[in-house]
Write a structure and sequence with these properties.
The protein is α+β, with helices and mostly antiparallel strands. The protein folds into two domains: 6-87 and 105-112 and 134-204, Rna Polymerase Sigma Factor, Chain: A (Orthogonal Bundle); 215-335, Nuclear Transport Factor 2, Chain: A (Roll), CATH 3.10.450. It has 13 helices and eight strands. Strands 1, 2, 3, 4, 5, 6, 7 and 8 form an eight-stranded mixed beta sheet that branches. The longest helix is centred in the middle third of the chain and has 23 residues, at 182-204. The relative contact order is 0.11.
């Protein structure tokens, strides 16, 4: 727990903006991640964080100091996020469909819209151990699969599961944060855990991914990069698990055969040259994908691919459209490379 002086709180409550900034800044990054888990969007998380700090600024004189400043800010942030979810239906913000003859999907995802989380935003995140009730490790709790599964939960269940199983707050603390009862929190958590278990059960049997930035991870990503840049579908498919999931929300393709057909339709159009720019999202390797223009030295963005690894194979690839690229510092086109 970060010690907070009574004088600092008093000065902030009296309207000292510098003191307030000193109070809340140590929690900015972790609160942003918290809002992202609930909302599934980095953009919405930023809006929720700003609303959180505004609400905290306005209510600081009513901070009773029975809980820590961190717990109080999590309470404010959680309720800001729940208010955002209640305020209006959030519509998918997608670009025009890809100009390709896509194969029929295996199924349609229940989660129709989600944004990836740039790893650069995780840099400098305070290494604060979760409470004793936590069930998830930090890496698992930011993974794309976990955040996707969270979006299947009703908002209140989502908040309860994150506060209890990710952050490790006790049921009594969560009940106070949500102006609820311990019994209600316990019931919501039980239902949320059951939903998450159904969603992630097949993944639990997979071989774990190699450690981030490890030689094994780097080798697999480099092989995939070379295959993409050579437009070698066979080489790409050889890196995929038999039950690979290729997702372009809400479309989902299961298995190598459909993945190959999708790749041919979307990323290997007319055998044009590809360029790949590596990055990271949700603690996982990711690739900015660019397809060459046959008439010049320009490569146009075709979206972001987030890779889920299992042992020495890729068990899932999730494609996001070009709208997410700016948050990863990636341009809409690359110039200066010979096609």
């Amino acid at each position: 727990m970060i010690p907070v002086s009574t004088d600092l709180i008093s000065r902030a409550a009296a309207g000292d903006e510098e003191a307030f900034g000193e109070l809340v800044e140590p929690y900015r990054k972790e609160l942003h991640v918290h809002c992202y888990r609930i909302l599934g969007s980095t953009e919405d998380a930023e809006d929720a964080l700003q609303e959180t700090f505004l609400a905290a600024w306005q209510a600081l004189d009513r901070f009773e100091r029975r809980a820590s400043m961190r717990t109080w800010l999590y309470r404010v942030a959680t309720n800001r996020c729940l208010n955002m979810l209640r305020a209006a239906a959030r519509r998918p913000r997608t670009e025009k469909p890809l100009a390709a003859d896509l194969p029929d999907p295996t199924r349609l995802s229940e989660v129709v819209w989600l944004e990836p989380y740039p790893d650069v935003l995780l840099e400098g995140l305070p290494d604060r151990p979760p409470g004793p009730e936590a069930r998830y490790e930090a890496r698992e709790a930011i993974s794309l699969a976990f955040v996707t599964a969270l979006q299947l939960l009703p908002p209140r269940q989502r908040a309860v599961l994150i506060l209890r199983d990710v952050l490790g707050y006790r049921a009594t603390e969560v009940a106070e944060m949500l102006d609820s009862t311990t019994e209600s929190v316990t019931s919501a958590l039980k239902r949320a855990r059951a939903t998450i278990a159904r969603r992630t059960a097949p993944e639990d049997a997979r071989e774990p991914p190699p450690p981030p930035q490890s030689p094994a991870e780097q080798e697999l990503v480099e092989r995939l990069t070379r295959a993409f840049e050579a437009s070698d579908v066979d080489a790409i498919v050889a890196l995929l698990s038999e039950d690979v999931l290729f997702a372009m929300p809400p479309l989902e393709y299961l298995g190598r055969e459909l993945a190959a057909r999708f790749l041919v339709a979307v990323t290997m159009q007319q055998r044009l040259r590809n360029r790949v720019v590596p990055t990271r999202a949700n603690g996982q390797p990711a690739l900015g994908l660019y397809v060459g223009d046959r008439h010049g030295r320009v490569f146009h963005a075709m979206g972001l691919l987030v890779l889920t690894l299992s042992g020495t194979q890729i068990c899932a690839i999730t494609r996001f459209d070009n709208s997410v690229l700016p948050r990863f510092g990636l341009p809409r086109k690359l110039t200066g490379w010979a096609p």
